[in-house]
Amino acid sequence: MPTLSFDLPDGTTVTTPVTTLLNAGYAGRDQADVAAHVAELAELGVPAPKVTPALYPVAPYLAAQTDEVPAQHGRTSGEAEWALVITAEGVLLTVACDHTDRELEVHGVAWSKNAAPDVLGRKAWRLDDVADRLDSLTLRGWADGQLIQDGTLAELLTPQHWLDVLRERGLYEPGVVLISGTIPMVPGVNQFAGEWRVELGDPATGNTIEAAYRVRRLPEVIG
């Protein structure tokens, strides 16, 4: 199983193995907007979930703190998200980029989530330290240097919502990582980029957490 390490604002470092990795989907706080989005995706051939919000189990080894993501073709892309990391020392909040195979997505969202890594930041905040201002935290994403996502955590279901789900399912334990689902992209942008950067920001302190990586195309298949 992979091990993640996070630097905290107080100068300490928390390290945890990843035993369970979960990707939330269709996790906007306004579920009427989510329903409209599901209908739009259906027109593009992406199968609709049976329920919303959705939660997709992902192979734990796909949780990564990396500067490079390999891709088999040019139709993969990331998404700006936050992540909850349950550790033996409490719950951490960090930024994440859910890299997804869009070609595979039309055959099954869960399959596409397992075809590329979830890239997490190397810094984190203790959830309790920002709990009083979660909705004001900012979430941004850049593709090849272009800002394509810009919002706040108020647009997404709350960390507490997902912690309650984990408790109900017996999954509230150290080693569990849950990634939030994403905010809307700027209409008309080209998301099939070679470089991705995502940022979680705290306007109250000016502190930010980022994750950035380049996409490396794998060699062509022989056979």
UniProtKB/TrEMBL annotation:
Gene3D superfamilies: Fumarylacetoacetase-like, C-terminal domain. Pfam families: DUF2848. InterPro entries: DUF2848 (IPR021269), Fumarylacetoacetase_C_sf (IPR036663). One of its GO terms (molecular function) is catalytic activity. This is DUF2848 domain-containing protein.
